[in-house]
Structures are given as structure tokens and as C-alpha cells.
């Protein structure tokens, strides 16, 4: 005769409760995994649309910011002599963060998981094995180290990022040839077209200023006519080198064509941009380049700060109109909106 075993009702309820709890834990774990996979897929899609190294670092920072607040993303490849820093802070803080990042990126003796600057910024550094001597540097905003969830997200994203960077480095020579002005070595219009939307998106999201300058050399035609095109090419290279040395590494300086240049300044209002523009005018004047005894090379500059929700075409037209006023009012000067 088979005897039945009595199981108390409260035990059955307790066991059912344990099973439900276990299922809820598993469902929550599955939900988090799904969200993480979706985030990583978004990163993959974003990076797949970018070809250049700088654009990838900027795109990665934009993707990461909503989930891991930070002030700087930096990438360095020693063998390829490639480095790019994308910083979202401004003013003295920006200079401090960039200086701290650059120090860590060149100091191979530092192997700690987290670094702390004298003014309380925290940095984490990863080595990506799929890219020779490549390091990713993250400086956290807010004076604290990354927590475990933030670290996990960065770690999970590194494979996608490193593969994208490897792709960029493999075609770096082709990219450089296609994206650099042959004569001056500056970025060309293609680079401007690739990066300007990202800069505008960052300014829109952060609420920080973004200013564009249109620069046109004065009396350059006389240089070509009187001294020859070879001398004209030398002058363009000389002016481009001077401007590149005076702007920040985070600014976008491009040669549009002929003797025309564009400069886009992140986190810079019109007032601060004018200070730099005046210095550029003075520096080019001090080059003492003359077409003849009465005709001296100069530069006219038009400045306009981007207005929220303003389209790129409207913004560029506004900058061009302001440059026209600088030309019409006597040349070799800065004009603002």
C-alpha cells in the first residue's frame, strides 16, 4: 500500500515563493543583458558610420556620455604616432584635464587601474590588445572614480571600439590622403563635412558655445601675380603652419580652397573667439609678406557663434556675410555678428 506524504500548505507556498523569486531574478538579469546588448549594438552602428580616428573617439564619447558621465576620452597609438583627445569641459578646467590626460598617455610607467590628479580628477586607462600599443583613457567628471557598473559598460564596449579603431588604422594612409589638403597639410572640406554635425550636436546637447570663423587672405592674388605661384604656395604653407600652431588641438581648422580657411572652435563663445582671431590677424601681419612695396599680405576674419536650432547652411551663410563686411570695411580685420 502506497502511503501519501502530507506537505504543509505553508511549505508549498514558501517553495512557490522561492521559485517566483528565482524567476524574477533571472528575468531581471535577462532584461539587463538585453539592454546592454542593445547599447553595444547602438555603439556598433554609430562607429560603423565613421571612417576616421578622431571621429570614432568623438562618436564613442557621445555614445558613452548618457551612461557614464565623463570629461575626456583619449586615444593613443605609439607605433602609428596617433593621438586624439575629445574633451567636453571648458575654460581652465579643460586645460587641466587635457594636461592630466596627456601626461598619463605618455607615461608608460604608470600601470595602476585608476589615477588621481592633484585637483581631484580620476582617470582610468585600458590597453586594447587588438590594436598595438593603443590606450583608451577616460577622465571622469565629478571627482570620483568609475563605479563597477560603469566599468562593466566600458569593458563591454571595448571590443567594438578596438575593432573600429583597428579598421581606421589599417586605412589611415588612405584616410589621410583623402582628408588632408595636399598643399598645406591641413584638414580639407571633407573633414569639415564629416565632423561639423557632431560638433553641433554636442553643443546642442551640452548648451555650450560653438563658434565658426571664416578666414580669407587679403591681397594673396597680388602675391601670386607679382611673385609667382611657387611663392604663393610657400605663403599658403607658411600661413597654414602658423594658424595650426596657434589654435587648440581640439579646434577644427580646414582649408576650404584657394586662400580660404574655416576654423570651428568648441566650447568657445564669440567674445573668446574674437581674441584668438585678433591674434591670428596680428601674427599674419607680422610675417611681413609683401607682394610689392605697397601691398602686404593680411587676413580678414568673420566670426559667428552658432545659435540653437540654427541649420548648418544658415550658419555658414551668416559667417560668410560677416566676412564680407570685414573685407568691405578695409580688410585685415575681424568682424563679428
Task: Give a written overview of the molecule.
This protein is of the alpha+beta class and 337 residues long. It folds into 2 domains: 29-179, PHY domain (Beta-Lactamase, 2-Layer Sandwich), CATH 3.30.450.270; 189-336, 2-Layer Sandwich (Alpha-Beta Plaits), CATH 3.30.70.270. The chain contains 10 helices and 12 strands. The strands form 3 sheets. The chain has a 5-stranded antiparallel beta sheet with strand order 2-1-5-4-3, with helices on both faces. Strands 7-8-6-11-12 form a 5-stranded mixed beta sheet, with helices on both faces. It has a two-stranded antiparallel ribbon with strand order 9-10. Helix 1 (9-48) packs antiparallel against helix 2 (53-64). The mean pLDDT is 87.
Number of domain units: 2
CATH class of the largest domain equals Alpha Beta
Specify the number of helices.
10
Tell me the helix content: 40-55%
Strand content: 15-25%
Corresponding CATH superfamily of the largest domain: PHY domain
Can you tell me the residue ranges where pLDDT is under 50 for at least 5 consecutive residues? none
Say what oligomer this is. single chain
Q: What overall form do the CA principal axes indicate?
A: elongated
Global structural class: alpha+beta
Strand order in the sheet with the most strands = 2-1-5-4-3
Based on CA atoms alone, the radius of gyration comes out at 27 Å
Order of helices and strands: HHEEHEEEHHHEHHEEHEEEHE
The biggest sheet, with number of strands, parallel, antiparallel or mixed sense and barrel status, is: 5 strands, antiparallel
Amino acid at each position: 500500500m502506497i502511503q501519501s506524504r502530507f506537505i504543509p500548505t505553508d511549505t508549498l507556498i514558501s517553495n512557490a515563493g522561492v521559485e517566483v523569486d528565482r524567476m524574477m531574478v533571472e528575468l531581471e538579469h535577462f532584461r539587463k543583458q538585453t539592454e546592454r546588448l542593445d547599447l553595444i549594438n547602438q555603439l556598433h552602428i554609430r562607429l560603423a558610420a565613421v571612417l576616421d580616428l578622431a571621429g570614432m573617439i568623438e562618436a564613442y564619447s557621445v555614445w558613452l556620455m548618457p551612461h557614464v558621465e565623463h570629461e575626456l576620452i583619449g586615444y593613443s597609438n605609439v607605433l602609428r604616432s596617433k593621438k586624439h583627445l575629445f574633451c567636453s569641459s571648458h575654460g581652465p578646467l579643460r586645460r587641466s584635464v587635457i594636461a592630466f590626460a596627456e601626461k598619463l598617455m605618455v607615461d608608460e610607467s604608470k600601470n595602476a587601474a585608476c589615477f588621481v590628479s592633484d585637483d581631484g580628477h580620476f582617470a582610468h586607462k585600458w590597453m586594447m590588445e587588438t590594436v598595438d600599443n593603443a590606450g583608451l583613457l577616460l577622465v571622469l567628471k565629478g571627482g570620483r572614480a568609475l563605479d563597477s557598473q560603469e566599468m562593466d559598460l566600458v569593458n563591454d564596449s571595448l571590443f567594438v571600439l578596438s575593432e573600429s579603431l583597428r579598421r581606421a588604422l589599417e586605412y589611415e594612409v588612405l584616410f589621410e590622403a583623402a582628408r588632408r589638403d595636399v598643399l598645406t597639410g591641413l584638414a580639407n572640406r571633407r573633414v569639415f563635412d564629416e565632423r561639423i554635425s557632431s560638433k553641433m550636436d554636442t553643443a546642442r546637447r551640452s548648451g555650450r558655445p560653438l563658434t565658426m570663423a571664416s578666414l580669407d587672405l587679403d591681397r594673396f592674388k597680388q602675391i601670386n601675380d607679382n611673385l609667382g605661384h611657387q611663392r604663393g604656395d610657400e605663403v599658403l604653407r607658411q600661413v597654414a603652419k602658423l594658424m595650426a600652431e596657434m589654435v587648440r588641438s581640439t579646434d577644427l581648422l580646414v582649408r576650404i580652397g584657394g586662400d580660404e580657411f574655416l576654423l570651428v572652435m568648441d566650447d568657445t563663445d564669440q567674445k573668446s573667439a574674437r581674441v584668438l582671431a585678433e591674434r591670428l590677424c596680428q601674427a599674419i601681419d607680422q610675417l611681413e609678406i609683401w607682394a610689392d612695396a605697397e601691398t602686404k599680405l593680411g587676413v580678414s576674419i568673420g566670426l559667428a557663434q552658432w545659435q540653437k536650432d540654427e541649420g548648418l547652411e544658415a550658419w555658414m551663410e551668416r559667417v560668410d556675410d560677416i566676412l564680407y563686411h570685414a573685407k568691405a570695411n578695409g580688410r585685415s580685420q575681424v568682424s563679428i555678428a
